[in-house]
Specification:
Strand order of the largest sheet: 1-2
Number of helices: 12
CATH class of the largest domain: Mainly Alpha
Shape: globular
Order of helices and strands: HHEEHHHHHHHHHH
Structural class: mainly alpha
Strand content: under 5%
Number of domains: 2
Helix content: over 70%
Length: 295
């Protein structure tokens, strides 16, 4: 009997090891393909032109391969979505963890989960048919495709992630710390500001960075709402193009495989991969650097 149990547990261990190996192998395969195709791209295009050029027109003649317009468009979306998701997400988390009754919490949490489960393409059409007309009624010079409406829907998309992770971080703070703050005569605001947020700072910051990483890689909502105009601008009311939306544009099947236009997909993809990887590494560093361990 003990031999059968040991064999069963050994089989489970092997299965789990193989699963981990498949994950590692898949990641290595993606990285290998990205680097191999990007290497072919940079054999024909100068890295200086690619990283510092201000014109991105790889599908037209004459061709230009400066990625700054795509990078600036992506950063506008990330910054705009952060202005919406971070403050509202933190406030929602504070309310859920400190003030909401169990009944209210059981209503709000599922609603947040529904927001997180809506397909991104639906968010894109929502921005185009609802948010953009409102913006154009307030600011008539707003373009039909614009970065502002895309930023708003992406902010709504990642808000549940910020709220949920911040809520978990705040609820992980021991009750004794909060009660100690009240024992010193602190108000609710002072306890939240001076005790809860500093004690859960690592989790809160990690939620910000992970949510912004999600915004950085958003594709369909941005493609539909923001347009496909690679423009180096800081005006959120203009049409822009992000790195992900460019990849979608070129991947539709009209671009012949093996050409320089096809290789731009991987060059842009490796920049997107690198930035997202750095953001996740920074999030892990913040969590480890400011983590509070309670016993």
């Amino acid at each position: 009997m003990f031999r059968q149990i040991n064999l069963k547990e050994k089989g489970i261990e092997i299965f789990l090891s193989l699963s981990a190996f498949v994950s590692i192998l898949t990641t290595m395969g993606i990285i290998t393909i990205l680097f191999a195709e990007s290497f072919q791209f940079f054999k024909n295009v100068s890295p200086v032109e690619f990283f510092f050029g201000t014109q991105w027109e790889p599908l037209l003649v004459p061709k230009s391969f400066g990625i700054l317009p795509l990078l600036s468009g992506t950063l506008i979306i990330v910054a705009g979505s952060a202005l919406i998701s971070i403050p509202f997400g933190v406030l929602t988390a504070i309310y859920l963890s400190q003030f909401a009754s169990e009944k209210t919490r059981n209503i709000i949490k599922p609603v947040l989960e529904i927001l997180a489960g809506i397909p991104t393409v639906v968010y894109g059409f929502f921005a185009l048919s609802f948010i953009t007309p409102i913006l154009r009624s307030i600011l008539p010079f707003t373009e039909v495709f614009n970065a502002a409406s895309a930023s708003i829907v992406v902010g709504i998309m990642i808000l549940p992630m910020v709220a949920s992770l911040c809520d978990d971080a705040l609820r992980s703070v021991p009750r004794s710390l909060k009660e100690g703050g009240y024992a010193l005569g602190s108000t609710d605001f002072e306890v939240i500001k001076g005790v809860l947020i500093p004690s859960s700072f690592s989790g809160i910051m990690a939620s910000f960075i992970l949510a912004l990483s999600r915004a950085f890689g958003e594709t369909m909502a941005v493609t539909i709402a923001a347009g496909a105009t690679p423009k180096l601008t800081i005006n959120p009311l203009e049409s822009i193009q992000t790195m992900t939306s460019y990849i979608v544009q070129v991947s539709l099947g009209d671009t012949p495989q093996g050409g320089i236009e096809y290789q731009t997909i991987f060059a842009v993809g490796i920049v997107l991969f690198g930035v997202t990887l750095l953001m996740n590494i920074f999030a892990n560093w913040v969590m480890n650097r400011y983590r509070e361990v309670y016993e």
